[in-house]
């Protein structure tokens, strides 16, 4: 996967995070107040891969891609499935991410299963590496 592809992938994650927040009518400060996640960190995750959240723009050096664990926490906070936040992980995805996570026993097993599924999905798509 080229740097541009990774930037686009992370930008999509950021857009999905922002959409989940805005769909619930929450400001960054409200997310911090209700969840304990720092507003500046959530905003940074929303900007990852873009400048000012604009798709296709150069990467924002202030943007920081969230970890899988942080994505799980935010998905739980927003009340959405993890697959809503990660491109290529939709339930109809060829790699069957939803089934992988449902079969996992506990958070550590879910993270390990998700990592393995992402690698398999990337390989199936002909990608040299995956995010």
What would your notes on this structure say?
- The protein has 131 residues and is mainly α.
- The chain has two domains: 1-79, 434 Repressor (Amino-terminal Domain); 88-126.
- It contains six helices and no strands.
- It has helices at residues 3-23, 28-35, 39-47, 68-78, 97-103, 107-124.
- The mean pLDDT is 75.
List the helices and strands and how they pair.
Elements: H1 3-23, H2 28-35, H3 39-47, H4 68-78, H5 97-103, H6 107-124
Give the integer mean of the pLDDT values: 75
- What is the CATH class of the largest domain? Mainly Alpha
CATH architecture of the largest domain: Orthogonal Bundle
| CATH topology group of the largest domain | 434 Repressor (Amino-terminal Domain)
Let me know the number of strands: 0
Shape: globular
Radius of gyration: 15 Å
Number of helices, counting only DSSP H or I runs of 4 residues or more: 6
Output the helix-strand order.
Answer: HHHHHH
What is the terminal-to-terminal distance?
A: 9 Å
The multimeric state of the shown protein is single chain
Number of domains in the coordinates? 2
Q: What structural class do you assign from the helix and strand content? A: mainly alpha
* Helix amount: 55-70%
Strand content: under 5%
For the sheet with most strands, the description reads: none
Low-confidence stretches: none
């Amino acid at each position: 996967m080229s740097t541009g592809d990774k930037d686009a992938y992370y930008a999509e994650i950021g857009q999905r995070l922002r959409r989940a927040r805005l769909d619930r009518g929450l400001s960054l400060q409200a997310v911090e107040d209700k969840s304990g996640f720092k507003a500046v960190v959530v905003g940074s995750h929303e900007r990852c891969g873009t400048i000012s959240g604009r798709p296709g723009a150069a990467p924002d050096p202030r943007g920081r891609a969230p970890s899988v664990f942080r994505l799980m926490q935010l998905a739980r906070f927003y009340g959405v499935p993890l697959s809503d936040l990660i491109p290529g992980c939709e339930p109809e995805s060829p790699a069957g991410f939803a089934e992988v996570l449902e079969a996992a026993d506990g958070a550590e097993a879910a993270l390990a299963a998700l990592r393995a599924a992402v690698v398999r999905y990337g390989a199936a798509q002909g990608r040299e590496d995956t995010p």
